[in-house]
Design a protein that fits this description.
The structure holds three protein chains of three kinds. By secondary structure, chain A is mostly helical. A two-stranded antiparallel ribbon of chain A has the order 1-2. In chain A, strand 1 and strand 2 form a beta hairpin. In chain A, helix 3 packs antiparallel against helix 4, helix 6 runs antiparallel to helix 17 and helix 9 packs antiparallel against helix 18. By secondary structure, chain B is mostly helical. Chain B folds into two domains: 65 residues; 64 residues, no CATH class. Chains A and B meet through helix 8, helix 9, helix 18, helix 19 and helix 20 of A and helix 1, helix 2, helix 3, helix 4 and helix 5 of B.
C-alpha cells in the first residue's frame, strides 16, 4: 500500500513540476501570499475573484492555482498579525496575542522566522497525513455526530474562556459577549430572526471578518492615534535578528508539533473552522506550559503552535472535500465548486478516475510550500522595514485596506458599518481592561454549541442523557467537568493563599506574644 | 479630580457594561419562544447567556468594591480629534462609495482619517490619499476585478 | 432657443443609441447567492454562452444574503435600462414572498420576466443501513413506526424543507424535521444513520451514491434525470403528481424596454439550445428550458401557488 502511494506520489511530482502547471502553481501561491497580507481579504475573496479565470483552463493547473491561493494566503495572514496586530484573517487573530508583543520588543523578525518554519513543518506533516491516513480520518470523522461536536465545542469554549490574560472573570464575560454576538441572525432550528431588528444584512449573522478587523484593527487605531510614533520599537533591526537562534528553535519545537497535531485532528472533521483550531492550539499550549504567565507578553510558543495548527489544518482540509465531496468550510466549498465546473466529481472515485489531478495536487502542495518559504524569507526584511513607516501614515492606509477588504467579502458596504461598530466597541472594552480575543472564540463557537445541542436533542427526542451515554461525548463532557473543577480549585487556593498572606502581614505582633506559636 | 474618576470608571465600568448587556439580552431574548432545556426554543440560549452575563457584571462590581484601588496612573487624555476622524472616514467610505464610487470613497477614507493625527497636514494627507487611490485602482479594481464602480453617480 | 434644440437632439440621439446598440456596455447579472453554489455555477455557465452571442461581457455580481432577498432587492431598485439583471430561483420569487413578512421587494410588481432558463430536481437519498429500497418501502416503514424517522434540511423555509413537508403531507407519514445550515452538512449524519432521509442536490449526492454510502430511491422531478436514469421519479413510485424542482430564471427590473427583453430572451433561448450548453447543464443536474417572458410569468405564478399551499398546510413560519 505504501509502496503504491509512493509510486503515485512520484507520478504526482512529475505532473506538478511540468512547467505549465508549475507556473500556475507559483502564480496561485504568489497571489495567495499577497492577498493573505491584505487585511480583510482572505483566500475566499481571492478564489472567488480568480474563479472565472479557471473556466478556460485545464482542470489540473486550475486546481493547482486555486489550492496555491488557499495555502499561500495562510502564510501572508501571519505577517499582518505579528507585525501590526492586524489579523488579515480571523484565524490569525490568536497569533496577534503573542506575535505583536514580540514585535514591540523588537523580535518581530524572529516571530516571522519561526512562523515560516512552523508552517512548512506543519504543512508537510498535513500532506503526509493526507496521503497515508485519509481513509482512517474519514472514518473517525463519521463517528462524530451532533452530540460529540457539542461536547468538543463546549470544551473548547471553557478552555478558551479561561485562557485570556488578566482577570478570569472578565475573560469569561467577554466570551459570553462573543456568544451573544454569534446569536445575531437567523436561528437554524426555528427560522426565527434573532437580534436583527429588521435589518436584512444581519439575517446571515455578523460577518466574522468585520468583527475581527474591527476589534483588532480599528480598535487598536482608535487607542493609538496621536499616542504612538512607530509600531515596532525604534531600534534598527539587523538581518541577524531575523533568524531565530538555536535556543529559540528548541523552544518552539514542541509547541510546533503539538499545534500540528491539533490542526490535523480538526482538519479532518468537517464543519470545524480554522479559527477554532488556532484558538484551541493556543489555549492548549498555554495550559501545558510551565510558565503560562509569559503568554500574552511575547511567548514564542504562542506564535508557533497556532500557526502550525493553521497550516496543517489547511492541508488536511482537502481530505473531506476531495474524498467525500463535503467541504470543511466556505473556501473548500468554492474549490469544490470549481471542480464541479470543470466537470470533475469529488469523491472516492476521484483518486482513481483523475489520478493525475489528485496526485499532482498533493505533490504541488509540497512544491508550493517550498516556493512560499523561498518567497517569504527574504521578504521578512522588507516587512520589518515596513514597521519603520510612521504610524500616522500607516493607519489611514490600513483603514483603506480594511474597508475594501471587508467590502469584497460579500460585496456589501453595510459590513463596513459593522467594522466601525466593533472598532468603537473594541476600543471601549480595551479601555476597560477586557481582553478582546475571546470574543472571536465565543462568536465562532457559540452558534455551534447551541445548534448541535438542540440538534442532538432533536435526534434523541428530548433525552438529555444522550450526552453522557455516547462514549466519545461522555469523554469530552468528563474533561469539561475536570476543567471546571480545576479552575475552581486553583481559584480557591489562590484566594486562601492571599488571605493567609494578608493575615500574616496584618498580624505580626501576635507572634511576639510568648506562648502563641 | 479627573484622575479619580478615571480610576472609578475603569474599575466599575466593566461591571456596569456587562450588567447592562446581560439585562438587554434577557429582555430581547424573552420576545422569542423560550421552551425548556430539552426542547429549547430560540429564546432559551439568549436568555441564559444574558443571565450569566448580568451575574458576572454584578460579580465584577463586587470585586471592584472590595479590591484595592490600582496605582495612581494618570489616564490618557481623550483623543476626540483622532476618534472622530477615524469614525467619520469609515462612514465617508460607505456614503461616498454608494453615491460617488470607489475612487472618491478611497480618497475620503484615507484623507479624513489621516487628518486625525495632529502631526499630519493637508499636503501629506492628500499625497497619501492619492497614493492609496492609485494602489486601489491598480491592485483591487484592475488586477482583482473588484465589483465596485470607480465613479458611480446615481447608481445603486 | 438654439441650446434647447441642441439639448433635445443630444437626448434623442442618446436614447436612440441606447436602444439601437444594446448592449453598448457590459451587463451585470446579480446572483443573490454565494459563489460556487448551484445558482452561481449555473449562471456562470450560461453567461459565458450569452456573452459570446451578445459580443459583450456579462459580469456576475454575487450579492448573497437573506436567502436571496438582498440581491433581489438590488435589481428591483435598479435602473430599467437592461444592464442590470437578476438570476432568480424558486426561493427568491416563489417561496420568500409567501413566507417572509416585510420583504423589501414585490416579486411580481417590481420585476419583468425575461426567460425561465432551467429546472433542477432533487434526489431522495437514504442511508444504506435503512431497510428500504424504494419510496413505497419508505412510506411503509414510516407508517409502521411513526415519529421515529427524521429528515434533514438546509434550513427552515428552504426548498429542501418545503419539499420534505410536501412529501410528508402527500403520503401522510409522521417524520421529524432536523434543520442544518446546508444540505452538505447533513450528509455525515445521514451516512451514519442518525438522519433517515434527505432531498439532496443530484450532483453533490453522486460521490456517496457511487461508493455505496447512500441509496437513491426517488427523483423529485416529473421525468427521470439523465444523470440517474435507473432511479424512478417519486411520482411513479406511489405519489402521483408529486413534483418539486427548483426553477432558475432571469428577471429585469420593471420598466425595462420590451425590445431589450425580447432580444435577451432570443439570445438566451439560442444559448440554451446549443449542444454544449445542454451538456454542461446536464452535468449540473439541470434541465434546460427556455420559455418566453409570458411563459415564465405563468410558470412562476403556478409554482408560487403550489408552494404557498405547502407553506400553509405545513404551517411553516419564519418570523
Amino acid at each position: 500500500m505504501i509502496g503504491q502511494s509512493l509510486n503515485d506520489l512520484w507520478y504526482g511530482f512529475g505532473i506538478a513540476l511540468q512547467p505549465h502547471n508549475l507556473m500556475w502553481s507559483f502564480f496561485g501561491v504568489l497571489v495567495g501570499n499577497l492577498i493573505g497580507v491584505l487585511p480583510g481579504m482572505g483566500a475566499l475573496t481571492a478564489i472567488s475573484m480568480l474563479l472565472p479565470l479557471t473556466y478556460t483552463m485545464h482542470p489540473v493547473p486550475a486546481i493547482l492555482m486555486l489550492a496555491g491561493i488557499f495555502y499561500g494566503s495562510q502564510y501572508g495572514g501571519a505577517i499582518g498579525a505579528i507585525l501590526l496586530n492586524m489579523p488579515s484573517h480571523p484565524p490569525h487573530a490568536v497569533t496577534c496575542l503573542d506575535g505583536y508583543p514580540m514585535t514591540k520588543a523588537g523580535k518581530g523578525g524572529t516571530a516571522l522566522g519561526i512562523t515560516m518554519i512552523a508552517s512548512f513543518f506543519a504543512a508537510s506533516f498535513g500532506i503526509m497525513v493526507m496521503i497515508f491516513a485519509s481513509p482512517l480520518l474519514v472514518q473517525i470523522a463519521f463517528k462524530f455526530g451532533p452530540t460529540e461536536i457539542f461536547s468538543i465545542m463546549l470544551l473548547g469554549l471553557l478552555a478558551g474562556a479561561t485562557m485570556a490574560r488578566g482577570s478570569p472573570l472578565k475573560g469569561v464575560a467577554i466570551t459570553v459577549v462573543g456568544l451573544l454576538i454569534g446569536i445575531v441572525g437567523t436561528d437554524v432550528n426555528s427560522g426565527v430572526q434573532r437580534f436583527t431588528y429588521g435589518i436584512p444584512e444581519l439575517s446571515d449573522k455578523v460577518e466574522l471578518v468585520a468583527l475581527a478587523l474591527g476589534m483588532f484593527g480599528v480598535a487598536d487605531f482608535l487607542r493609538s492615534v496621536n499616542r504612538t510614533q512607530f509600531v515596532g520599537s525604534e531600534t534598527k533591526v539587523r538581518l541577524r535578528d531575523m533568524r531565530p537562534s538555536k535556543a529559540e528553535l528548541k523552544q518552539a519545537f514542541f509547541p510546533m508539533v503539538r499545534g500540528t497535531l491539533i490542526g490535523t485532528l480538526f482538519g479532518a472533521m468537517p464543519g470545524t473552522g480554522p479559527t477554532i483550531t488556532t484558538f484551541i492550539a493556543y489555549a492548549f499550549e498555554r495550559r501545558v506550559s510551565k510558565t503560562p504567565e509569559r503568554f500574552g507578553h511575547g511567548a514564542l510558543e504562542g506564535v508557533a503552535a497556532p500557526e502550525a495548527a493553521s497550516h496543517s489544518k489547511t492541508q488536511v482540509d482537502f481530505i473531506p472535500t476531495m474524498s467525500l465531496g463535503i467541504p470543511g468550510d466556505a473556501v473548500m466549498a468554492l474549490i469544490l465548486g470549481a471542480l464541479l465546473i470543470q466537470g470533475i466529481q469529488p469523491g472516492p472515485q476521484l483518486i482513481t478516475e483523475h489520478a493525475d489531478l489528485f496526485w499532482g495536487l498533493i505533490a504541488s502542495f509540497w512544491v508550493g510550500n517550498i516556493l512560499l518559504v523561498i518567497l517569504n524569507v527574504p521578504l521578512i526584511g522588507l516587512w520589518v522595514k515596513l514597521l519603520q513607516v510612521p504610524f500616522r501614515y500607516m493607519y489611514p492606509a490600513a483603514l483603506f485596506f480594511i474597508a475594501v477588504g471587508v467590502y469584497s467579502t460579500n460585496n456589501s458596504l453595510f459590513e463596513i458599518y459593522e467594522v466601525l461598530l466593533f472598532g468603537v466597541a473594541g476600543a471601549i472594552l480595551l479601555a476597560l481592561d477586557f481582553p478582546v480575543a475571546p470574543i472571536l472564540l465565543g462568536y465562532v463557537l457559540g452558534p455551534l454549541v447551541e445548534e448541535n445541542f438542540r440538534r442532538a436533542l432533536l435526534l434523541s427526542r428530548g433525552d438529555l442523557t444522550v450526552f453522557v451515554t455516547r462514549p466519545i461525548s461522555a469523554a469530552f463532557i468528563g474533561l469539561c467537568t475536570l476543567l471546571i473543577l480545576a479552575q475552581i480549585f486553583f481559584a480557591v487556593r489562590a484566594t486562601m493563599r492571599k488571605r493567609r498572606e494578608g493575615l500574616d502581614a496584618a498580624a505580626p505582633p501576635l507572634s511576639n506574644v510568648p506562648g502563641i506559636e | 479630580m479627573s484622575a479619580v474618576w478615571g480610576k472609578r470608571i475603569k474599575n466599575y465600568g466593566g461591571g456596569v457594561l456587562m450588567l447592562l448587556l446581560g439585562i438587554g439580552a434577557v429582555v430581547q431574548g424573552q420576545t422569542y419562544a423560550i421552551g425548556s432545556l430539552s426542547r429549547m426554543g430560540p429564546g432559551f440560549f439568549p436568555v441564559a447567556l444574558g443571565t450569566i452575563l448580568a451575574l458576572i457584571g454584578v460579580g465584577l462590581l463586587v470585586t471592584a468594591w472590595f479590591s484595592e484601588p490600582p496605582e495612581e496612573t494618570k489616564p490618557l487624555p481623550p483623543e476626540w480629534r483622532g476618534w472622530i476622524c477615524i469614525v467619520l472616514s469609515l462612514v465617508a467610505f460607505v456614503v461616498l462609495g454608494k453615491y460617488g464610487g470607489l475612487v472618491p470613497a478611497t480618497f475620503a477614507v484615507v484623507f479624513i482619517s489621516a487628518m486625525g493625527e495632529r502631526k499630519n497636514n493637508w499636503k501629506s494627507a492628500a499625497i497619501l490619499s492619492v497614493g492609496m487611490v492609485i494602489v486601489c485602482v491598480s491592485v483591487f479594481w484592475w488586477a482583482l476585478q473588484l465589483q465596485f464602480p470607480l465613479f458611480a453617480w446615481g447608481q445603486s | 432657443m438654439k441650446w434647447l434644440a441642441c439639448v433635445l437632439c443630444t437626448l434623442i440621439v442618446t436614447v436612440a443609441q441606447a436602444q439601437a446598440v444594446y448592449p453598448a456596455k457590459p451587463i451585470r447579472l446579480v446572483v443573490p447567492f454565494p459563489p460556487a453554489g448551484a445558482t452561481d455555477i449555473l449562471s456562470r455557465d450560461l453567461m459565458q454562452g450569452l456573452s459570446a452571442r451578445l459580443g459583450r461581457q456579462v459580469i456576475i455580481d454575487n450579492r448573497p444574503g437573506a436567502a436571496g432577498a438582498i440581491g433581489s432587492e438590488i435589481v428591483a431598485k435598479a435602473a430599467p435600462d437592461g444592464y442590470t439583471l437578476l438570476m432568480a430561483t424558486t426561493s427568491t420569487h416563489s417561496v420568500e414572498p409567501t413566507i417572509t413578512p416585510n420583504l423589501p421587494y414585490d416579486a411580481v410588481k417590481d420585476f419583468a420576466p425575461v426567460c425561465l432558463v432551467a429546472t433542477s430536481p432533487n434526489v431522495l437519498v437514504v442511508p444504506v443501513t435503512l431497510p428500504v429500497n424504494s419510496v413505497k418501502d419508505l412510506i411503509a416503514l414510516a407508517k409502521a413506526k411513526p415519529g421515529t424517522l427524521n429528515y434533514g434540511s438546509a434550513g427552515t423555509g428552504g426548498i429542501v424543507h418545503l419539499t420534505s413537508e410536501m412529501f410528508r403531507f402527500r403520503t401522510g407519514i409522521d417524520i421529524v424535521h432536523v434543520p442544518y445550515k446546508g444540505t452538505q452538512l447533513v450528509v455525515p449524519d445521514l451516512i451514519s444513520g442518525q438522519i433517515s432521509m434527505l432531498f439532496d442536490n443530484i450532483v453533490s449526492a453522486q460521490p456517496n451514491l457511487k461508493t455505496g454510502k447512500l441509496k437513491a430511491i426517488g427523483i423529485t422531478g416529473l421525468k427521470r434525470s439523465p444523470l440517474m436514469p435507473d432511479v424512478p421519479t417519486i411520482a411513479e413510485s406511489g405519489v402521483p403528481g408529486f413534483e418539486a424542482s427548483t426553477w432558475f430564471g432571469v428577471y429585469a427590473p420593471r420598466g425595462t424596454p420590451p425590445a431589450i427583453i425580447d432580444k435577451l430572451n432570443r439570445e438566451l433561448v439560442a444559448v440554451l439550445q446549443s449542444a454544449d450548453m445542454r451538456a454542461r447543464l446536464a452535468n449540473l443536474g439541470a434541465d434546460p428550458v427556455g420559455t418566453t417572458p409570458e411563459g415564465m410569468a405563468k410558470t412562476v405564478a403556478a409554482e408560487t401557488a403550489k408552494w404557498a399551499k405547502v407553506i400553509h398546510d405545513a404551517n411553516v413560519k419564519v418570523e
